[in-house]
């Protein structure tokens, strides 16, 4: 019975001691047998980043069809009413072209025959208009002048219609030659020399500039702004490419996963020639940064926003709270604007006999320390979880 009572007393004492440390107490005996983990305040750079994943795409793609002006790929368009028999195809998929380069041509013999008829019709209409003007000038009497004036108006309409018909045919003849609207790379060719062209697009040209559209989760959207710098990592190339945020969708994307996200578009700066549309890319957007500032580990911070402090060791080696004013705070580092000097050490934990400790400060930052448990004294500071 005495042994049982003794065991209960010992367990009770251990529990009280653990609670005391967790609530901020640190007996002098513990301080004497424990080693504080510290880190010096140093001058450096801090960046706060948002990560997302997307795929590479060209910033613009143009499609070209016989008898129609170039248009954005994917937009509906109608080719000319003529039958377009392809006479020459000068490019293949993968070819690099410059704006104005001739890509393909179609036969225009039928169009030119129609143009001859249009020219004749226009000449006849002009002659009729000249006669109508002369008749109006010679007309006498109200009725005669009224009739002559109506004839003149009709003749003017016929001339206008004939001119438009001729212009349309000239435009169709011009559009029988496909030219590159932009500098780019041929991504599709859907015509064959000697065969009639299909009713849809004949050739597609992708621009030489690229972008990545990545999905940013809703908790990070407020941090994103057009103009922010980004780094795009393409594992397939082993390349890190600089970029700039060019757009942020105002509406959430449709996602079957249930995670609310918004599309952020990053335009790549000077991408390598090996970049191809469709490649997977990891995007890191820098949402805030501070250069050449005094920094400490974020795990050293205690308190709440606007009322932060850190622990420093006094002359006897005991930790004491010291108020600090902070700026940019990330998951790993915190900018100290005042309250510390460079080289001054701050407490980030205490080595104990435990094997593993996770230190979590009041701001959600977590730090795991191996080689011994860690406890931080003082109320309102980091919450300590000591592993077995």
Report on the architecture of this protein.
- The protein has helices spanning 2-22, 28-33, 109-138, 142-174, 218-221; strands at residues 35-40, 42-58, 61-65, 68-72, 86-89, 96-97, 102-106, 177-179, 184-189, 203-207, 210-217, 229-234, 239-248, 261-268, 280-297, 302-304, 307-313, 319-329, 333-338, 345-351, 356-360, 366-370, 383-386.
- The chain is of the alpha+beta class.
- It folds into four domains: 27-45 and 290-386, conserved putative lor/sdh protein from methanococcus maripaludis s2 fold (Beta Barrel); 50-59 and 209-289, Elongation Factor Tu (Ef-tu), domain 3, CATH 2.40.30.170; 61-107 and 176-208, OB fold (Dihydrolipoamide Acetyltransferase, E2P) (Beta Barrel), CATH 2.40.50.100; 108-175.
- The strands form five sheets. The chain has a six-stranded antiparallel β-barrel.
- Residues 1-33, 355-360 and 362-388 have low confidence and may be disordered.
């Amino acid at each position: 019975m005495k042994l049982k009572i003794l065991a209960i007393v010992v367990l009770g004492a251990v529990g009280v001691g653990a609670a005391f440390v967790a609530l901020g107490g640190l007996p002098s005996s513990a301080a004497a047998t424990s080693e504080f983990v510290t880190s010096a305040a140093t001058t450096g750079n801090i960046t706060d980043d948002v990560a997302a994943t997307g795929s590479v795409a060209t910033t613009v793609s143009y499609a070209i069809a016989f008898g129609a002006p170039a248009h954005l790929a994917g937009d509906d368009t109608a080719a000319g009413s003529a039958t377009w028999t392809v006479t020459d195809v000068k490019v293949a998929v993968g070819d690099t072209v410059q704006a104005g380069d001739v890509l393909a041509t179609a036969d225009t013999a039928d169009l030119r025959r129609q143009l001859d008829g249009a020219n004749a019709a226009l000449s006849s209409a002009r002659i009729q208009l000249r006669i109508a003007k002369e008749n109006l000038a010679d007309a006498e009497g109200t009725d005669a002048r009224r009739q002559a004036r109506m004839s003149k108006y009709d003749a003017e309409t016929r001339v206008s219609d004939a001119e438009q018909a001729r212009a349309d045919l000239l435009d169709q003849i011009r559009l029988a030659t496909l030219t590159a609207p932009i500098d780019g790379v041929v991504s599709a060719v859907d015509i064959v020399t000697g065969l009639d062209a299909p009713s849809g697009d004949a050739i597609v040209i992708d621009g030489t500039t690229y972008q990545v559209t990545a999905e940013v989760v809703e908790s990070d959207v407020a941090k994103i702004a057009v103009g922010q710098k980004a780094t795009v990592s393409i594992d397939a190339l082993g390349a890190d490419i600089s970029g700039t945020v060019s757009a942020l969708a105002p509406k959430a994307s449709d996602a079957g996963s249930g995670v609310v996200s918004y599309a952020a578009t990053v335009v790549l700066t000077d991408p390598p020639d090996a970049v191809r549309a469709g490649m997977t890319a990891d995007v890191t957007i820098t949402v805030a940064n501070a250069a050449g500032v005094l920094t400490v580990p974020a795990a050293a911070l205690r308190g709440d926003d606007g009322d932060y402090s850190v622990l420093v060791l006094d002359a006897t080696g005991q930790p004491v709270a010291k108020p600090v004013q902070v700026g940019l705070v990330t998951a790993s580092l915190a900018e100290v604007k005042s309250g510390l000097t460079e080289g001054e050490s701050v407490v980030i934990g205490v080595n104990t006999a435990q094997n593993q400790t996770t230190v979590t400060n009041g701001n959600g930052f977590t730090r795991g320390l191996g080689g011994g448990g860690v406890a931080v004294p003082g109320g309102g500071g980091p919450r300590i979880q000591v592993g077995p």
